[in-house]
Amino acid sequence: MKIPIRSHAGETLTETLCAMLVIALSSILLVTMLMVGMRLNRDAAQQDARFYEEVNALEQRTASSAPARVTVNASSGASYTLDVTVYGSEDGLRAYRKAGS
Fold first, then answer.
1. What is d(CA 52, CA 92) in angstroms, rounded to the nearest whole number?
2. CB-based burial of residue 63 (10 Å sphere; 0-12 exposed, 13-18 middle, 19+ buried)?
3. Please, how many CA atoms are within 13 Å of residue 65, restricted to the half-sphere of its CB?
4. What is the pTM of this model?
5. What DSSP designation does 10 have?
6. Model pLDDT, residue 7
7. Domain residue ranges in the chain
8. Cα–Cα nearest to 64, from 91, 98, 101
9. Which of 18, 49, 62, 92 is 20 to 30 A from residue 5's alpha carbon, by CA?
10. Residue 88 and residue 95: Cα distance in Å, rounded?
11. DSSP state of 2
12. Beta-carbon contacts of residue 68 (< 8 Å; ≥ 6 apart)
């Protein structure tokens, strides 16, 4: 009597399901990374736009302004007080211009 030869070549159902699970988890991770990257790029673009708007407002002197007095302390110990106009906001960029110039 002849004994049937069994072939153990190929993949089992368990191996195939595990491979599909790894591919699915990898895909989810990739999509998540892409979404986070896109959000970071969008936020950076918005911050850049705000920064350039503030810089332009300061350069054109269209930002809010107020008179102020600034004291400069030199390393030699001398102290100078100047009347200036301050352009900008408390929490943003600021520019100073000597009053009368």
1. 12
2. buried
3. 17
4. 0.59
5. S
6. 64
7. 13-60, 63-101
8. 91
9. 18
10. 7
11. P
12. 83, 84, 85, 86, 96
CB 97 within 8 A of CB 87: yes
Q: Which residue has the tokens 């950076």?
A: 44
Among residues 38, 39, 54, the alpha carbon closest in space to that of 93 is found at 54
The pLDDT value given to residue 95: 87
- 93 versus 20: the higher-pLDDT residue is 20
| Alpha-helical runs (H) found in the chain | 13-59
- Pairing outcome for strands 65-73 and 94-98: unpaired
Q: For 35-93, how does the pLDDT look when each residue is reduced to its tens digit (9 = 90+)?
A: 999 999 999 999 999 999 989 888 888 878 889 898 989 899 899 899 998 888 888 88
